[in-house]
Design goal:
The chain is of the alpha/beta class. Helices cover 31% and strands 15% of the residues. The chain has helices at 19-32, 44-47, 68-75, 82-91, 103-111, 127-134, 149-162, 187-195, 209-216, 243-260, 312-315, and strands at 6-10, 36-41, 95-100, 117-119, 140-143, 167-172, 198-203, 221-225, 280-283, 298-301, 319-320, 335-336. Strands 3-2-1-8-7-6-5-4 form an 8-stranded parallel sheet. It has a two-stranded antiparallel sheet with strand order 9-10. Strands 11-12 form a two-stranded antiparallel sheet.
Length: 347
Amino acid sequence: MRKKVLIVAEISSNHAQEISRAFKMIKRAARAGADAVKFQAFTPDDITLDSGNRYFILEHPKWGGERLYDLYKKAYLPYEWLGALQKCAAKEDLVFFATAFSKRGVDELEKINVPMHKISSFELNDPSLIEYAAATGKPIILSTGMATFSEIESAVRAARRAGSGRITLLKCTSAYPASPLNMNLRTIPDMKRKFGCEVGLSDHTIGIAAPLAAVSLGATVIEKHFTIGGRKDTPDEFFSIKPEELKELVSSIRAIESVLGEVSYRPAGAELNMRKYRRSLFVSEDVGKGEVFTEINIRSVRPGYGMPPATLGEVLGKRAKKAIKKGSPLNAGMILLAGPVRTGKKK
């Protein structure tokens, strides 16, 4: 049986730095059927420098011209909230975890004993951070946006070297929003083979088509940015899905899981009763005793009460042992044998 896909509602900055809104988002994610909620554990100083130097000015259709420090100042979540948010998630039967962007972030998350650690695509090239998170011995999730094969390989090596409990790679396109043309989801099964890890998707496209395709390709984790709307000033609002879309995503993924099933080359239980309606040999015209069987008076038709169609060649040219009415299923007892005729049944 396939493992159930872990569906993660990524709150990101959509809490708008209001803890009451963050609580509400956790509850709405649970109501929509998500398995987990994920936040981002950082302060602006964990990620960048408070500088107006041109290197720290964003170039982006939505965030362009803004200082990195100012963007993160609007997006960060106070570390002091983490424990309360975790308790809220536990009451809603949701897994709670967060992305750490610094060693301090890992330490703060360890204080509340999160079940796993997440490293973002932008930090994938920082082996010291990966090793620090992996050294907790907990499962680690690594997003792979912008990364080359060798960079992913190095990150996985760092996590394994430090003793990570389990590694999951997330296929990711770090564009906001991401174009479907840049997703290349066929990479998912290839990543699974080449890195020997579970593989999922961190999705920044508009809509839910990409996560559904990813699940059909073997993704076991889906992370999707989530909002409850009403705050267009949060950095991630414009590419996040709302509760009704999250609910549709969850129900669609669960349906895909059901139809994927397992590798099987045997009839399903529900098919067994239908086997009797497959083709078999029937007498298609009245046949007199001693009459020769031909393609006119013997045909392969539905249902399946006669001899198997594969025996037709052995029947043609033989004679009827007795008179047979049209519509009778042909069986070996109706044939004068000059040699054996297979019935299709095991002896």
